[in-house]
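Model it.
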Amino acid sequence: MFIVPKNTDLLLTEAEGENLYLKLIEQMNKDFNLANEAIDFPLSISPAELKLQLHEKIYRLIQYKFAEYLNLLYIIDVSEEEIKKLDGSDLVILAEQVAFLILKREWQKVWFRNKYR
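Modeled.
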């Protein structure tokens, strides 16, 4: 049964523990490219660095390329309800929360694909 991790660190630890961390990176690279927001996380990237780079990318998208940001959320299929629940008053915190929602959705895809292949 899929259990949603409570935060980014737990999610990345779980991905590593299930040997699906590389698949998670591949899925993120794929979906970002589908949204024409090329990001190329190397497979050797550490979980801490992945978390940081994703946060920075989302922050820049929200601030400078909002339409592309919305398109990315659509392509990845992040829950609109969860996005609407977030408090957008602090952009740095918002970007961190959205980065977690993106990771969570990508992790779901990878986990289910692995479980039911």
